Amino acid sequence: MAQQRSAADEAQPPAEIVVTGSFLRSRNNDANPVQTVTAEAISKTSATNIGDYLQRLPSIGSTASNNTRANSGAGLNCADIRNLGQARVLVLVDGKRQVQTMAPGLMCVDLNQIPVGQIASVEILKDGGSELYGADAVSGVINLKLRHDIDDGNLTFRSGVTSRGDNGTLMVSGYKGFNFDEGRGNITVFGQYRAQEGIYQRDRAFSRLASSNNPAPGGSYVFGSGLTDRTRVDTSGLNLISNNDGTFSRYTTADNYNFGKDQMITGRTRDLSLSFDAHYDLSDAATFYASGSYAHREFHNNSGGVGVQGSGVTTSTLPSTLILPANNPYNIWGRNVNLYKRFADLGDHPLDNTINSLQGMAGFKGNILGDWNYDASATYATSKSKLVTGNNVNYRHLLQQLGVRQLDPSSSSSAVVYDPTVCTSQAGCVLVNPFLPWSGAAADYIAIDTTDRSKYEMVDLNLRVNNDRLFSMPYAGGGDVGIAFGVEHRWEHGRYTPDSRVVNGDVAGISTAATSGGFSVTEAYGEVRVPFLENVTFARDLSVDLQGRWSHYSTSGSNENWKVGANWAPVRDIRFRGTYGTSYRQPSIFELYGGSTLSLVSAIDPCAQAATYGASAATVAATCANNGVNTATFTSAYSGQLPTLSGGNSDLRPESGRTFTLGTVLTPHWIPNLSFSVEYWNYKISNTIGTLPTQYILDQCYTGANTSSCSYVSPRSSSGQLTQIAARYQNLGTVKARGIDFDLKYSIDLTSSDRITLDNTLQWQMAYRQQNRPNGPWLDYTGDVLYSSGFGYPDVKDYATVTWTHNNFGITYMLNYTSSLNYNNGTRELTAATNQYYKTGSVVSHDIQVELNLDRIKFQAGVTNLFDRQPPYIPTGVFNTAGGLYGAQMVGRYMWIQAGVNF
């Protein structure tokens, strides 16, 4: 179980160690709020990667896991602290930076690539960290500390499956360490293979029927997608749908396509990780150390059939709207009509992502003179990925099948006519009746698999010098002043190369461009710890810690960050501590240089529901009329999803932050093995980088609340449909978050053979407020879930464990609690008076684990989500719940066994 590091029992002074948040050795009693997770705690859960375990902790936000990322083959597992975003947390391994993995629109350190069996402990610094570790440490730092100096071996097998027989998991891991040259050197090798099957939405009741919530007052849920798997026809106000037999019916939302039957909740994974760790003591002045790791990951996901209504590529010269010409023999209306279709005829829409990561580090450390020590290292790392998306629609071939010929091939808005020779002149082309199912040959002609590739590289050079005892304070009761300083130079470069057929517009509904860019940074940093008093009356410990870092980026220039920490223990039973500091985040390569991508995002066209806008209904109707839309007769072709263009912005400024923490730790000596800590935290992040929600942009534009938002909305098509909404990265405004952490740890020996251990971590989020644009209104998301994205900000999250051990047998009970959440459409909370679905209930989940130690063999078994608690209903348009918050509930009851042998 996670425990508060500084709340350790002080009856026996602990050894001095270096803890995350400082480069100086201490007795675990500094001012930084650091939470520690042990390898033993991780092993008691069903987690087969560290990301899944961290998601249990209250301080880890709702965006923690991306193995359930919809409509993406990414399969990355990213971390988030305090719900402040994946980009604002820095992940280290043994204090060193790790290479990020790129996926379309996403970058992070993929926690899947680090074998869980290699981790000795995890330290989570929850008050920034930019002043010591550099950019990205805004919400905090997650430092994975690995096993070292191993002189034995281990082989472990694990298997698991849900009570429904899916999500089967197999993991085999092992390590072997060797000492040599009379213990002066050591080398340890690690390996892990993990295979996990996926879960389809159709196999869970809560996600079987895909739906989304209408954000307007009075709105209820909207089932499925208006891009149906039968051809839909827009004949200037009359919406019809083919019955697949040549006849037609009026389109209603009951005809919508249920993509829940095709999409996966969790993808299928295959992971292989290999690594080594070595060191050799050349002398007291120099120890050579080196490590290397290789990770291979295969991730498979499945999405719904591709929806087609036009090119979707603004630079393409192909028709922007899919039109059936008036003279087509299957056009019974005698005029051009718009067609909309989701091509389930092509079969599954698979996404397969293969990631290969390689990282190597070498360095020297040792003693220079007296108490002066140094550590110099060099790291090179690279991560490559290949994303293959199957059964996309070749738009050029589709036009040929329909006999569509442009009178002006150089213009996407050109008039079109029916000409069968555009198909008959092409080998393999089959003319089709769009109101009947596609034949096998016809489907094969338009199906196209695309391949996107990405690569990220990092070089990091680091030199650090420290002296834990520079000098003693010149008076009785004073402590030893410590100092650390260093320099670092880092170079990072990323490249994303989409399939050339996507770029030139041959693939329907997908718009993207290549991304390539990088930066270099040179930095200097330092830390000074001043222990004013030690072991005197009313000052068992009184110290101040000063930290600072100067950085110069090739992209954004210079930046300075600092932090002040104070620590006072009047007696050994109580300690007060606090920190105040600054942080910053450099825009990522995707944010700076990202190519344009068009995708369908959950949102509803205001012109399709103008009457639901209450006092603003007349303004919405007028705005629609100005755009050529009659709200009385208009029907959107995109029920629940709208085309949104995203991309990078080279004019972005770095984010900046300020963090304040204040807490106390109680370790009463009259109650042995009891510790209790309370920590208040407060974040303010300015110049936040992000994108505005599609629905927010539309509502601001059409209600007149912010007419400048209309500049993000492209002109409508000839039939009045929205063509695209621009949601590029911008410096938006400010985020403020504050709350209190409560941590309790207690253990008691019942007998000489029996011991009870209680551990509880609770986070109370008192406020989460955000500005979506500079000087814009403050939006309060406290206790809300943004159902358009599934991100949640619960008031209370709690994780508790109780363990009973009897000799070599143990049993552990684990409880997870998440408080209820109100639905929020991005600008306001929904209520029972205005919406059919407006809030969730609280969720309590129970796990149990047993273990038996027999000398060299250890058996474990457990059940996660013991009572098969289902996640609350949240109509996100994807899973009908929030995957990051309710991962265990989405999977359902999961049973696992494990056996390990030491040798």
From TrEMBL:
Residues 31-141 form the TonB-dependent receptor plug domain. Keywords: Cell outer membrane, Membrane, Receptor, TonB box, Transmembrane, Transmembrane beta strand, Transport. It comes from the Bacteria. The keyword Transmembrane applies. It comes from Sphingobium psychrophilum. It is a multi-pass membrane protein. Belongs to the TonB-dependent receptor family. This is TonB-dependent receptor. Pfam families: Plug, TonB_dep_Rec_b-barrel. Residues 340-866 form the TonB-dependent receptor-like beta-barrel domain. SUPFAM superfamilies: Porins (SSF56935).
